[in-house]
Design brief:
8-stranded mixed β-sheet; Rossmann fold; 418 residues; 13 helices
Length: 418
């Protein structure tokens, strides 16, 4: 970890889950990053890990009672809530999620979370059936809408003996989420970002279509990262195999024509547009109204070009066009194809990746990309998890966007946002 947490006061809330022992690892990681760590525990949590364990690590008193007083005879949870730079609740049980979503205060952990105005990160842990229960998902959605940052649980062995989603996220991943709050927090604050993700399906008949293998994972990672860095994010989603992120304005657009309509509607008010969706280049000239029956004879489908959405945005007047990032998935000749697309379509940046072969990222959780500007290749990144690619990409976009804006007249439509 970098030095972003040095001197930061982090309150770690621990609730009554068997995963409470992992909170010890989390606290140790935060201390190693030179954060000042205070621990608050629910009464149930103390059955799994003793307060003395945390006190021995932090050399600070552990708060376990909502009515507890500190050394200055102040209410301890209020002092912690006011002093915290961030609050991290790990693990968070289903019951605690419900209490937070409803604004209920039953213990020191919920009291700190409710009283603090610092960012609150919640890392749930529970059995798979509890995590996927509709009520739990409603509570998580409510918390996300209220501004809580959710580090979702992982798939793995659970205390019940079953395997499924519900395992507390790795402490390293939780600590990284805390670090991101301070490393890049707010560099997109006040900006409206539009991201497209996934593929499109162009209908042949009511049950068949022309499509592609795009999962939407890269676009979702880009949207999530922009959200976490303070942007107001609109996600225009095609067909995806990944769940859309919470806390974004979601619009579904599963055909090229629907994608075009949604993008053109959103682009004129956007500061930055990232076209990560794999929009089909061609569509059937005519879609049959009924399922085409197989009769043994060959079937011919006439294909016509779909509208070139990114080119249309690139042709918008400079004072109304968003900073525009495109994607180029190529099976060969990546650099000439990507740079040609950047030039011909009026892009500010283009993200290129090779499909097929050892670096095929379609459907994968990792990606290897090269980002091109008008001066050529700008990056030399290895294969990375798509969230890390998104973080690095936004670092680059923010820098280039600010440079571009210094040389461009501000748009009146951006004033007073958010």
């Amino acid at each position: 970890m970098s030095g972003q947490l040095a001197g930061r006061r982090i309150v770690v809330g621990v609730s009554g889950s068997i995963a409470a022992y992992k909170a010890v690892q989390l606290v140790r990681r935060l201390l190693e990053a030179h954060a000042v760590v205070d621990v608050v525990m629910t009464p149930a949590a103390t059955h799994f890990v003793g307060p003395l364990t945390f006190a021995s690590l932090t050399h600070r008193p552990v708060v376990t009672d909502v009515l507890e007083l500190d050394a200055e005879q102040q209410i301890a949870h209020v002092e912690l809530a006011e002093a915290a730079d961030a609050v991290v609740i790990a693990p968070a049980t289903a019951n605690l999620l419900a209490e937070l979503a409803a604004g209920l205060v039953h213990d020191a952990v919920t009291a700190v979370a409710c009283a603090s105005r610092a960012p609150v990160i919640v890392a749930p842990a529970m059995d798979a059936g509890m995590w996927t229960h509709a009520a739990t998902q409603r509570n998580v959605a409510t918390l996300a809408e209220d501004g809580y940052l959710i580090v979702e649980p992982e798939i793995g062995a659970l205390a019940s003996g079953l395997t499924g989603v519900g395992r507390l996220a790795d402490p390293a991943r939780i600590a990284e989420a805390v670090e991101r709050l301070f490393a890049r927090a707010g560099d997109l604050e006040g900006l409206r970002v539009v991201v497209t993700a996934g593929g499109t399906r162009e209908p042949i008949d009511p049950v068949r279509f022309i499509g592609n293998r795009s999962s939407g994972k890269m676009g979702v990672a880009i949207a999530e990262t922009a959200r976490d860095r303070g942007a107001a994010v609109t996600l225009i989603a095609g067909t995806m195999s990944v769940t859309p992120p919470r806390g974004v304005d979601l619009h579904e657009a599963t055909t090229a024509s629907a994608m075009r309509e949604a993008v053109l509607r959103a682009a004129s008010g956007a500061d930055i547009l990232v076209m990560a969706a794999a929009v089909a280049d061609f569509a059937p000239a005519h879609a049959a109204s009924h399922k085409i029956k197989r009769d043994g004879s060959p079937l011919s489908v006439e294909l016509v070009p779909n509208p070139d959405i990114v080119a249309e945005v690139g042709e918008m007047p400079d004072d109304n066009r968003p900073f525009l990032i495109g994607f180029a998935a190529e099976s060969r000749d990546l650099e000439p194809n990507a740079t040609g697309k950047l030039r011909d379509k009026g892009l500010d940046l283009i993200v290129g990746n090779v499909v097929g072969g050892p670096f095929d990222a379609i459907g994968s959780d990792e990606n290897k990309v090269t980002v091109f500007g008008v001066e050529g290749a700008l990056t030399d990144w290895p294969m990375l998890p798509k969230r890390q690619v998104a973080e690095r990409l936004w670092d680059l976009i923010v820098d280039r966007y600010r440079t571009a804006r210094r040389h461009r007249r501000p748009r009146a439509s951006t004033r007073g946002r958010r």
